[in-house]
Design goal:
The complex is a heterodimer of chains A (97) and B (483).
Chain A lengths: L4 H11 L5 H18 L34 H10 L3 E2 L2 E2 L6
Antiparallel strand pairs in A: 1-2
Chain B lengths: L7 H9 L5 H14 L6 E4 L3 H13 L11 E5 L26 H8 L3 E6 L33 H8 L5 E6 L5 H7 L2 E4 L19 E6 L2 H11 L29 E5 L9 H16 L3 E5 L7 H16 L17 H12 L2 H14 L5 H24 L2 E5 L15 H5 L6 H6 L3 E8 L5 E7 L5 H15 L9
Parallel strand pairs in B: 2-3, 2-4, 7-8, 7-9
Antiparallel strand pairs in B: 1-3, 4-6, 5-6, 5-10, 9-11, 10-11
Helix pairs in contact in B: 2-3, 5-6, 9-11, 9-12
The chains are: A mainly alpha (97), B alpha/beta (483).
């Protein structure tokens, strides 16, 4: 399963990770070898009735009612301290549009 | 009295008898950590731990009951958040991250007055099998410092083996507790999926991740697991099943139990010295009345392929949150999109990028069915097959890893070669069952060899007693010879 440069660039775009030209060749080789290995799953056939969304360890959905969880000022400050850019107690980002 | 290589029970007894204080213990470990910086096991030391130890000594002087884990110095893998104590996940992305909260398991340790010495090194975002993917330098194996300690919980295993703490908490997604435990001659446990809360674990593969103890004995691992396990409202994948008191059942009778050795574990890559030690373990079990039968489980040949599709897929989803906005490093950029791409290019190391891209591929349109969906169905098929095995047998026995520790730099050129060292461990994560690794022999170059036992879901008591009996029979001194 060989990847080409166009596919690699597309994957990098989807994953939102810049790849330098220097990294490209090495990544191409490594990803192709990994994908070739996992291709071996195609050799096995799974019976029709095996469903892909059944959870291997039986878990059921856990629900609860929505709750408003008030936050302390100390916690708010600690959370804001983690953020990249803060202005007026709000997290600032570049414009989306 | 000597404070060397204390067990959890040693600490409990020592504190009760006033042989030593918590402060003396902590000072002992801090001094040792300082002496052994070449191992590079620790990333961050808890600057408050001495103060906390002194405060605990006062509580104890006033009659505080000393339970297991009280006053016991522990190292926490840096993929687990600790409030107000820097947590990096071994990545540049989180080089300055100070979590505002504790993981549930950390809260439980603190409730029992455990003393957190600091955060230990790991492969970046728990991705790796040698601790060579850490942005903060590799960890060295205390038994032979030219060799890797294993990964991704390399710092944890090295710290426990080198007596830089009494125990450590690591995380295991494809073998990341068991494999380093095996390479470093210590005990490592991956609990059943859902046994220990993942709240506060920086997510790598949400359907495989489990935190587990890395200790110097099976008994210690039992004490730790019974303390950190339990239902958690904050992690809806935790089980409501009660936590068994594993430490009280270690000496339960194992005669009559039936183990199987899958033929697939005797593959070409299995090193003769590991095979020999496995055969020794089998003989010992047979002498204790445990039968070991060889069994053919063809689907086991596909476990790595299943793992290396599902895991990267979930990694690509879990690491999407690192965009430089709410936490983590922020790269300079002109636009929002450029910001994402630059932040992630600068913050993530090569293995993280690789797995992200593989995951993106297997989830993308046109490939999703052939890869991801197929892997999920193969996973289900594996689970059905193993359910049938558990009907007739009590567990799997096998080597933890195909070889003992490899040299630093030996496998860093080809990712696939590195992945192959997980061949015996990933199965347990894929089907969510508990597994333990314990040291059973010495190999060449002073490097230890580990044995792995895998049992059915929520059967940790049985798994622990199987391990404990073998440990007692072997009476192996696993301590590093060269420290």
């Amino acid at each position: 399963m060989s990847l080409d440069k166009k596919q690699l660039k597309y994957l990098a775009e989807l994953a939102k990770i810049n790849i330098t030209p220097a990294e490209e060749d090495r990544l191409l080789k490594q990803l192709s070898s990994i994908l070739a290995y996992v291709q071996s799953l195609q050799d096995i056939s799974c019976p029709e009735e095996i469903d892909h969304f059944a959870d291997p360890v039986k878990n059921v959905n856990i629900w609860r009612a929505d709750q408003v969880a008030p936050i302390s000022e100390i916690t708010r400050q600690k959370l804001l301290a983690c953020a990249g850019e803060v202005e007026n107690n709000l997290i600032r980002t570049k414009p989306v549009f | 009295m000597s404070l060397e290589y204390l067990s959890i029970k040693d600490v409990q007894n020592g504190l009760q008898r006033r042989d030593f204080s918590c402060r003396e213990l902590v000072d002992y470990y801090l001094a040792k950590i300082n002496q052994q910086q070449d191992l590079n096991a620790y990333l961050t030391i808890n600057q408050q731990v001495q103060e906390q130890a002194t405060a605990l000594d006062q509580k104890i002087a006033h009659g505080e009951i000393i339970k297991p884990l009280t006053g016991v110095p522990v190292a926490i893998k840096d993929i687990i958040v600790t409030a107000d104590l820097k947590t990096t996940a071994g990545s540049l992305m989180l080089q300055n991250y100070i979590p505002p909260y504790d993981a549930t398991l950390v809260t439980k340790i603190k409730q029992r007055d455990g003393l957190i010495l600091g955060k230990v090194n790991c492969d970046e975002f728990a991705m790796g099998s040698s601790n060579e993917n850490s942005a903060y330098g590799p960890v060295r194996n205390p038994h032979n410092t030219d060799y890797v300690p294993g990964g991704s919980s390399g710092g944890s295993a090295a710290a426990v083996a080198a007596d830089l703490c009494v125990y450590s908490i690591g995380t295991d997604t494809g073998g990341s507790v068991r494999q380093p435990a095996s390479f470093c001659g210590v005990v490592g446990v991956k609990p059943t999926y859902g046994r220990v809360s993942r709240y506060g674990l920086i997510a790598m593969t949400s359907s495989f991740d489990q935190a587990g103890p890395i200790c110097r004995s099976v008994a210690d691992a039992a004490y730790v697991l019974e303390s950190i396990a339990g239902h958690d409202e904050r992690d809806s994948t935790t089980t409501a099943k009660a936590v068994d008191l594993y430490s009280t059942k270690l000496s339960n009778e194992i005669s009559g139990l039936r183990l199987v050795l899958p033929k697939q574990f005797l593959s070409a890559g299995l090193h003769p010295e590991v095979r020999q030690s496995l055969e020794l373990a089998i003989k010992l079990y047979e002498s204790m009345g445990v039968s070991v039968t060889e069994i053919d489980l063809p689907l086991l040949d596909k476990v790595l392929a299943i793992y290396y599709i599902i895991m990267p897929a979930e990694v690509s989803a879990n690491l999407a949150r690192f965009d430089g906005i709410r936490f983590g490093q922020t790269a300079s950029a002109q636009s929002l999109w450029e910001g994402y791409k630059n932040t992630r290019a600068e913050g993530f190391g090569s293995e993280v990028k690789r797995r992200n891209l593989v995951g993106t591929y297997v989830l993308s349109a046109g490939y999703y069915d052939a890869y991801y969906k197929k892997a999920l169905r193969a996973q289900r098929q594996l689970k059905i097959m193993m359910d049938q095995v558990w009907q007739r047998y009590d567990g799997l026995i096998g080597p933890t890893t195909p070889t003992s520790a490899f040299r630093l730099g030996e496998k860093t050129d080809d990712p696939l070669t590195m992945y192959l060292s997980d061949i015996y461990t990933v199965g347990a994560n894929i089907i969510g069952v508990p597994a333990i690794s314990l040291p059973i022999a010495w190999g060449a170059n002073d490097l230890p060899i580990g044995l792995q036992l895998t049992t059915e879901p929520f059967s940790e008591s049985k798994m622990f007693s199987l391990a404990w009996h073998l440990e007692q029979k072997l009476a192996l001194n696993w301590q590093p010879k060269n420290i």
